[in-house]
Amino acid sequence: MEEARLHLKDQLLCLETEQESILGVIGKEIDAACKTFSRDSMEKLKVLSSGPDILYDPHRWLAESK
């Protein structure tokens, strides 16, 4: 019985280590994606705001009023 408990405890420790590793990798991927989207969004904002029709767009007024 004690041997089975120790075996399960070892398995649990391995799974916890694996989980931490996987979550670390996922966190790095999410950070990289956020940085990429952040960079792209600033460029898209520059492109959108440079258009002549932006002054008359009702969505612009709505966005500025929030």
Compile the SSE list and pairings.
Blueprint lengths: L1 H48 L8 H8 L1
Mean pLDDT level: 80
Q: Uncertain runs with pLDDT below 50, 5 residues or more?
A: none
Rg from alpha-carbon coordinates: 25 Å
Summarize the biggest pleated sheet: none
Globular, elongated, flat, extended or rod-shaped: what is the shape? rod-shaped
Main structural class: mainly alpha
Number of DSSP-assigned strands = 0
Total of helices? 2
- In N-to-C order, the SSE pattern is HH
Count of the domains: 1
Question: In what range is the share of β-strand residues?
Answer: under 5%
Span between N and C termini? Answer: 64 Å
What fraction, in percent, of the residue positions are helical? over 70%
